[in-house]
Amino acid sequence: MKRIFLCACLAVGCAWILRLSADDSTAHRPKRINKAIELLEQRQPIYYTGGHGGYQEGVRLAHTWADYINYEMEHGLFDLGQLREFMRGLAAGGPTKSGHRTPAVIVTLPVGGIDEAAIHANYWMIGQVMDAGVHGILLCHARSPEAVRLFVQACRFPHQKLGVKDGGLEEGLRGSGGQGFASQIWGISGSEYLKKADVWPLNPEGEILLGLKVEDKYALANAERVTKVPGIGFAEWGPGDMGMSLGFPENHDPPYPPAMEQARSRVLAACKAAHIAFLNQVKVDDVESMIREGVMIGAGNEAAAEKGRRYTKRTMPW
Questions:
Q1: 22: in domain
Q2: Could you tell me if 56 and 93 are in contact, meaning their C-beta atoms sit under 8 angstroms apart?
């Protein structure tokens, strides 16, 4: 009888332990599809890594230490088929430790925001990338406010009206059918995708995060104007290209000459004034001071991200 009682206790105990383990694995329930936006809403800095491959790389990066993946198409191949396979791999390999279906994916494009004509001629490229189920785009060489407004327009569906006319934006350019593949990657219906696939923070319910590279002297001259375009969520000063533009082609990393420091300070100030996130390089030995300065998106390695997360007392699993 005593043995039966002990066995019963052990069984209950094992069940209790298993239940605790199951509860731990679902302790964090995502409030959003886009992990990066969810964290920024909490005023938590975010950190990214790079990507450029197809399905297998997507599977591998599904459990990345990073909050989002910068998918490189500016200098890499503009291969839409490979991008779609990458997104399929992410979805197949997920969810993340935080419970999100995938890490956020933000793509850099080979077309720059040189002027309105450049974006107008290549808006199809923006739509095709969005249709792959990504969570945002980073526009390089964002020189022109008119180009940036058209960039935002190319990322939106026509029925999304926030910021249209009264905010200086025009009707979105994405078309019906674009929700098909993208909604499968996000794990929602096409109808739900059409509601959620809008730009944040202009639309507080939006799941698309758009960024700018204010990375040359021409963009710098318009830093305050381009960062205030409705629908933009973050910006960076792109020290590599900025250095080239200012005559310092070998100064990608600090210490920077005074002209580059001034450029960085101006873009940081413009981001603060526009209430959008500022992206900058972070290292283990400076991540805390960078966060105090106002850096909200860190370009750095896993060790720097770990230290930054501990410093800001992040509660979301990573």
A1: no
A2: no
Residue 200 is assigned to a structural domain of this protein: yes
Residue with tokens 């001259």: 221
pLDDT, tens digit, for every residue of 44-75? 999 999 999 999 999 999 999 999 999 999 99
- The pLDDT tens digits for 146-175 are 999 999 999 999 999 999 988 999 999 999
Give the residues across from 235 on adjacent strands: 212, 278
CATH number of domain containing 217: 3.20.20.60
* Count of domains observed in the chain: 1
Does the reported pTM lie above 0.70? yes
Domain of residue 168 covers 32-311
- Residue 104 is inside which H or E element, if any? strand 104-112
- Other C-beta atoms closer than 10 Å to the C-beta of 302 total 14
The conformation of residue 106, written as its DSSP 8-state character, comes to E
